[in-house]
Design goal:
alpha/beta; D-Maltodextrin-Binding Protein, domain 2; 2 domains; 21% strand
């Protein structure tokens, strides 16, 4: 009798096994740099877009690129939402990875106090200026493009660039510790809404829709987990489309994730988190496709890195950018 029961249920067992296998959830670990411009990863997680693709995604927040590199090297991450420069810097040093898709455009600005007398980048000559860690992606953009090409200033001789954490840059400007800062969102908007500072340079006006944060993956992950990466890119596109569906889409998730509270300006007016995000969205936005102009900008950054001595080997953007997965996911 037991044998008959086993035989009658055996085909059903096989059917259930194949159904469960077909719907098996794939697990991925994605690191991201803690910046408002990387909001699509938060949206994809919170809105369930990764889950819709059959992915169990663990997103891990990092405060810097070097920490992400350490995690990738230790095989603790599969992908990362990170700036383009770290990827090609690491590539030149032996960590072979690829840039797969675009995350955002804009975000960076130079600010100064309204009463500083500074009206353009050349006015920073001889002044103390707040920047980030020497050799980082933002540092390359600052020294190569903002100071080198726009201001025609020698970043080593014409001004004193000091390293200050992003969260302390705007207070340093407002308290006159530095004359200006190369800063990004939401810190720029936070400072502007307090009412004491102004934007001297908006990178997105200088180079409209320039790429900054991108999705990257090591070569070995691409070769072994390509189907799962395609699903990540599909979820990423849904997140970007959601953010672009209205001027306020995603604001609640962004405000919560970045702990944006109310700000009282110098006239006593109170600004809520939505106001800060709306201000930030004037200078940054989100896109998922890398186009020829984006790749040309990445090449420009690579050239700066080499000329500044940050990268010892000249590279071509085509060595780093792989649009094949993007095209397959977005077809």
């Amino acid at each position: 009798m037991k044998k008959i029961i086993f035989k009658s249920f055996f085909p059903l067992f096989i059917l259930i096994f194949f159904i469960e296998t077909a719907h098996a959830v794939e697990s991925l670990r994605i690191g991201w740099v803690y910046a408002m411009a990387n909001a699509p990863i938060l949206i994809a997680k919170e809105k369930g877009f990764f889950n819709e693709q059959g992915l169990d995604v663990k997103i891990i927040k990092f405060n810097s690129g070097p920490l992400i590199r350490r995690a990738i090297t230790a095989n603790e991450l599969d992908l990362a939402y990170i700036g383009a420069p770290p990827v090609y810097h690491w590539y030149a040093e032996g960590l072979k990875s690829r840039i797969l898709a675009k995350v955002n455009y804009g975000q960076a600005s130079v600010i100064a106090r309204k009463d500083s007398g500074i009206n353009n980048m050349k006015d920073f000559k001889g002044k103390r200026f707040a920047g980030v860690r020497t050799g980082s992606g933002m540092d390359v953009l600052l020294r190569g493009y903002v100071l080198g090409e726009i201001a025609k200033l020698d970043s080593k001789k014409d001004l004193d660039i000091i390293t200050i954490s992003s969260a302390n840059m705007d207070p340093a400007v407002e308290e006159k510790i530095v004359a200006g800062a190369f800063i990004w969102e939401p810190f720029t908007s936070r400072s502007l809404m307090r009412g004491n500072t102004k934007v001297i340079l908006d990178m997105n006006k200088e180079i409209p829709n320039y790429p900054w944060y991108i999705i990257m993956a090591p070569e070995n992950i691409i070769s072994t987990k390509r189907p799962a990466i395609l699903k990540v890119l599909i979820a990423h596109k849904k997140a970007v489309d959601f953010l672009n569906s209205s001027p306020t889409a995603g604001n609640e998730i962004i405000a919560k994730s970045f702990k944006l509270g109310k700000i009282t300006d110098n006239k006593g007016k109170v600004h809520d988190a939505n106001s800060i995000i709306s201000e930030a969205r004037k200078r940054l936005g989100w896109e998922h496709k890398l186009d020829k102009k984006d790749i040309a900008f990445i090449q420009q950054l690579m050239n700066y890195s080499y000329e500044l001595g940050v990268m010892k080997t000249r590279l071509n953007a085509t060595d780093i950018v792989d649009t094949s997965l993007m095209k397959e996911a977005y077809k």
